[in-house]
Each structure stands twice: as structure tokens, then as C-alpha cells.
From TrEMBL:
GO biological process: threonine biosynthetic process
GO molecular function annotations of the record: ATP binding; homoserine kinase activity
Enzyme Commission number: 2.7.1.39
Family matches, as Gene3D superfamilies: 3.30.230.10, GHMP kinase, C-terminal domain (3.30.70.890)
Alphabetized InterPro entries for the sequence: GHMP_kinase_C_dom (IPR013750), GHMP_kinase_C_sf (IPR036554), GHMP_kinase_N_dom (IPR006204), GHMP_knse_ATP-bd_CS (IPR006203), Homoserine_kinase (IPR000870), Ribosomal_Su5_D2-typ_SF (IPR020568), Ribsml_uS5_D2-typ_fold_subgr (IPR014721)
Cellular compartments per GO CC: cytoplasm
Keyword set includes Nucleotide-binding: yes
Function: Catalyzes the ATP-dependent phosphorylation of L-homoserine to L-homoserine phosphate.
Protein name: Homoserine kinase
Residues that coordinate or bind ATP: P88, F89, G90, L91, G92, L93, G94, S95, S96, G97, A98
Length: 311
């Protein structure tokens, strides 16, 4: 009996105006998936997890892409997948995406499939679809490739890593709240289907500024680029605490700040010019005013998915 282990990091998607395009992996949290061949002659995926995840593979972020892999390659194996959740779910940290990526990467190693990183993303989006109804590729791309990525094409999947030439660290302001089932789906439903051309142009400026700021090492361009006039605005009812947290972070010279994915977590970039202690103190007070406790987690940009053979 052969088994492998895969580890995928948490991520923050959108990064301002990069809705469904940009994402950043970070080392704050990780999911671990163990995959093993139980038997041959039957095509089946068995899910095990100690967390409150559905064990039906069609409804599980790790199970749905695993079934798709077996089907596409015509492989008749019974595969057991054990998911160890380290990433809090429902908080905009790419939890389902990391499980999906780790699952596909583990099967790739286990079954000697020679999948490319973009192939892993292509299968992993099916895990996102199983959980949220939408096969959005941004989180899974970051957890697969590591670093800061841009999804340049959805069909076919094309992903490019963005060179980061600016020295900063990452902080996550994580509200300890219960966002309820289907939070990502609800957040996506709030995004307007029609927008004014002026808003599109404004967001295009933000997007290009952020990417240029990273590649050129320009702090001010990164700060300006982490804005969004469309998606964040449409979702403000879901996280009314965010405008105040953003105000506090920028007042104390954060490199930049934005909502992490579908929220409610806030992503904050900081460096030695940033007064992080004042941000921690004032953000904690703000969260208490909104009726919940916030955890501030300092971390770094994360690498791509890691896979180890166990036997």
C-alpha cells in the first residue's frame, strides 16, 4: 500500500481590484492531505476528516477534484483521502482551495500522472465549485504556484507568477466570527453584473498600479493599487468593520490593505515604516466595538504546494 502527503498554504485572493485574477499565498496556515491507494478494480474516492466537512466527495473540496482526476485518466482505484484542516474556513483565507490543491497534488504524485502546475489548478477549481458553486481559480492558483499570481486565462487555465521586488511582510486581521454556510456563494452574488465604464477604468488603474508596484519595487504604487471601487464596495454590508480597519492601517503607514478574498479577513502589507503595534491596538478596539474579537497574524508570502512520498 502506497501513500503520499501534500501540504498547501492559505491564500488571499483579489488583492484589491484583481477579482478572480490575483492571489497571494501566505504561510499563516496550511492544509495537509494524505492520499493512499486502498484497492484496484473500482473507481471510488473515500474522504476522511476530523473537521466538520462533508464526507460526500461530490461536496468536498478535496473529493470532487480527486474524482475528476480518476475519471479523466480512466483509473479504477479506490483512493482514500484524509484531510487535515489547518486553515480556518469561511474567513477568506482560501481554505477550500488549499484542500483541493493538496488533494490533486497528492494524487499526481501517488499515481505518477506528471501533471503540470496549471493542470493541478485546472482540477483544483472543481473543488471550489463543489463548495461554493463557482470554479474560481485565484486561490487555488496561489496555493499551487506560491507567491503572488495572476490568472491570465480561465479557459484554458493560464497562470503567471508576478515578481515581487518590494520588501514587506504580511499581516491578517481575522475576525473570530461565524460567517455561516455558503458565505463565498453569497459574497459572489453581491458582485454587480453591470458596472459603469468609469468604474472599470478606475479599477484597471488600481490593478495595473499594484502589479507595477510589485515588479518595480514601488511602495506607493502598491499602496494605491490595493484599492477596489467595485467588488469591495458591493460587499461592504458583509464586513462593516473593514472601512475602519483600513483607515487605521493606512494612518499608521501600512504598505497596503484590502479585503482578503470574500472576507471578512483583512490583508495588510507592512514594513519597517509601519507602526504595527499601534495598528494591533486600535484594530483590536475596533473589532470589540463591532462585537467580536480579532486575531492579528503576522506571516510571510508562502510557497507552492509540497508533496512527500511516505511509502
Amino acid at each position: 500500500m502506497r501513500s503520499v502527503r501534500a501540504i498547501a498554504f492559505s491564500s488571499s485572493a483579489n488583492l484589491g481590484a484583481g477579482y478572480d485574477i490575483l492571489s497571494m499565498a501566505h504561510m499563516a496556515f496550511s492544509d495537509t492531505v494524505y492520499a493512499e491507494i486502498v484497492s484496484r478494480g473500482e473507481r471510488k474516492v473515500i474522504i476522511e476528516s476530523e473537521s466538520a466537512l462533508p464526507v460526500d466527495p461530490d461536496r468536498n473540496a478535496a473529493g470532487a477534484p480527486a474524482k475528476a482526476v480518476l475519471s479523466e485518466f480512466g483509473l479504477d482505484y479506490v483512493i482514500k483521502i484524509r484531510v487535515i484542516k489547518g486553515i480556518p474556513f469561511g474567513l477568506g483565507l482560501g481554505s477550500s482551495g488549499a484542500s483541493a490543491v493538496a488533494s490533486v497534488a497528492a494524487l499526481n504524485k501517488l499515481l505518477d500522472l506528471n501533471l503540470s502546475l496549471e493542470d493541478i489548478v485546472r482540477f483544483a477549481v472543481l473543488g471550489e465549485k463543489a463548495v461554493s458553486g463557482s470554479p474560481h481559480p485565484d486561490n487555488v492558483a496561489a496555493s499551487t504556484f506560491g507567491g503572488v499570481v495572476a490568472v491570465t486565462s480561465h479557459n484554458p487555465i493560464k497562470v503567471s507568477k508576478i515578481p515581487v521586488n518590494l520588501d514587506f511582510r504580511v499581516a491578517l486581521v481575522i475576525p473570530r466570527v461565524n460567517t455561516g454556510e455558503g458565505k463565498t456563494k453569497k459574497a459572489r452574488e453581491l458582485v454587480p453584473q453591470m458596472i459603469e465604464i468609469s468604474k472599470m477604468v478606475e479599477n484597471s488603474r488600481y490593478l495595473s498600479s499594484f502589479i507595477l508596484g510589485l515588479t518595480q519595487g514601488n511602495r506607493e504604487l502598491v499602496k494605491y493599487g490595493l484599492n477596489d471601487s467595485i467588488v469591495e464596495k458591493s460587499r461592504e454590508p458583509m464586513y462593516p468593520h473593514y472601512p475602519k480597519i483600513r483607515e487605521i492601517a493606512l494612518k499608521h503607514d501600512a504598505v497596503g490593505v484590502c479585503v482578503s478574498g470574500a472576507g471578512p479577513t483583512t490583508l495588510l502589507l507592512y514594513d519597517n515604516k509601519t507602526d504595527l503595534e499601534s495598528i494591533k491596538r486600535e484594530v483590536s478596539h475596533t473589532c470589540e466595538q463591532f462585537g467580536f474579537i480579532c486575531q492579528l497574524v503576522s506571516t510571510e508570502i508562502g510557497g507552492g504546494v509540497r508533496v512527500e512520498g511516505l511509502n
